[in-house]
């Protein structure tokens, strides 16, 4: 799978985990030069507290376009630090 935003592949992996229709990419599969940590956090009742990354690709910024769970609940431990996308990021094979 590839995550693409602003005509750039920002993550690529054959080992994504699908939860609730979202592909979660292993942390080593993201291209870190496009990611910066955000101060945004949200809470999922069963996965725990999510943290966010903003993207900066080819001169354009996409705030909070990726999320991950640094300390997921026991039920979601398999996606610890895996990264999922929204806000216009395309996930394709």
Overview features:
93 residues; Metal Binding Protein, Guanine Nucleotide Exchange Factor, Chain A; three-stranded antiparallel beta sheet; mainly beta; four-stranded antiparallel beta sheet
Short description:
With about 90 residues, the protein is an all-beta fold.
Structure write-up:
The protein is an all-beta fold and 93 residues long. It has one domain: Domain of unknown function (DUF427) (Metal Binding Protein, Guanine Nucleotide Exchange Factor, Chain A), CATH 2.170.150.40. Helices cover 0% and strands 54% of the residues. The protein contains no helices and 9 strands. The strands form 3 sheets. It has a 4-stranded antiparallel β-sheet with strand order 5-6-7-8, with no helix packed on it. A 3-stranded antiparallel β-sheet has the order 2-1-9, with no helix packed on it. It starts with a strand and ends with a strand.
The total beta strand count reads 9
Count of domain modules: 1
| Strand content range | over 45%
Radius of gyration: 12 Å
Q: Report the helical percentage.
A: under 10%
Secondary-structure arrangement, i.e. CATH architecture: Beta Complex
- Low-pLDDT runs of 5+ residues are none
Looking at this structure, what is the CATH superfamily?
Domain of unknown function (DUF427)
CATH class: Mainly Beta
User: Average pLDDT value?
Assistant: 98
Give the ordered list of helices and strands: EEEEEEEEE
Present the secondary structure layout.
Elements: E1 2-5, E2 8-12, E3 17-19, E4 22-24, E5 35-44, E6 48-57, E7 60-68, E8 83-85, E9 90-92
Antiparallel strand pairs: 1-2, 1-9, 3-4, 5-6, 6-7, 7-8
């Amino acid at each position: 799978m590839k995550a693409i935003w602003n005509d750039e592949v920002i993550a690529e992996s054959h080992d994504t985990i699908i939860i609730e229709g979202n592909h979660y990419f292993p942390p080593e599969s993201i291209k870190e030069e496009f990611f910066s940590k955000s101060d945004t956090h949200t809470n999922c009742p069963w996965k725990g507290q999510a943290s966010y990354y903003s993207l900066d690709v080819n001169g354009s910024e996409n705030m909070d376009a990726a999320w991950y769970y640094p300390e997921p609940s026991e039920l979601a431990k398999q996606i610890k630090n895996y990264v999922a996308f929204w806000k216009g990021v395309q996930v394709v094979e």
